[in-house]
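TA notes, week 10

Several of you asked for a full example with nothing omitted. So below is the full record: structure tokens for the whole chain, then the designed sequence directly under it. When grading your own attempts, check the secondary structure regions first.
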């Protein structure tokens, strides 16, 4: 299965991936209309550790502990390997946020549901926006050895 990976040595810490993620998941046509003057809520985040920068996103684990901990059955793994959240089923307990070993499941801005990277599969994109528009090629979408 293809997953998102970050090459830290190429990441500039520009946070453009966060904006692209927020835009891709906004449901609004045009980035300016979607984001200008608004707080963004990306499904990934860039961590800055001194001179090292890297995007933290869902790893779509082989054996996801977030799914095992979900009391409402809102988290599922499709045949394509993508771990998804059904926000209609999510009761907002946020146990998945607590158990994710990568810190990749986040509380939604409304606070009543969790959110996470779903590889832009839920918004009709052929490739995750963070990958497509990373100016330095630090974020890649490729097949590698399975995660956890």
């Amino acid at each position: 299965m293809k997953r998102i990976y970050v090459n830290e040595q190429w990441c500039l810490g520009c946070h453009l991936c966060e904006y692209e993620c927020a835009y891709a998941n906004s449901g609004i046509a045009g980035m300016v209309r979607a984001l200008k003057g608004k707080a963004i809520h990306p499904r990934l985040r860039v961590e800055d550790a001194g001179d090292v920068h890297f995007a933290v996103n869902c790893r779509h684990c082989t054996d996801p502990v977030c799914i095992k901990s979900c009391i409402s059955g809102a988290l599922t793994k499709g045949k394509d390997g993508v771990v998804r959240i059904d926000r209609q089923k999510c009761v907002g307990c946020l146990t998945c946020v607590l158990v994710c070993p990568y810190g990749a499941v986040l509380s939604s801005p409304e606070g009543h549901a969790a959110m996470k990277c779903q590889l832009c599969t839920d918004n009709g994109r052929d490739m995750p926006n963070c990958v497509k528009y990373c100016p330095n090629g630090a974020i890649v979408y490729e097949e590698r050895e399975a995660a956890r």
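The chain has two domains: 1-57+119-148, 62-116. Use that as a sanity check on your answer.
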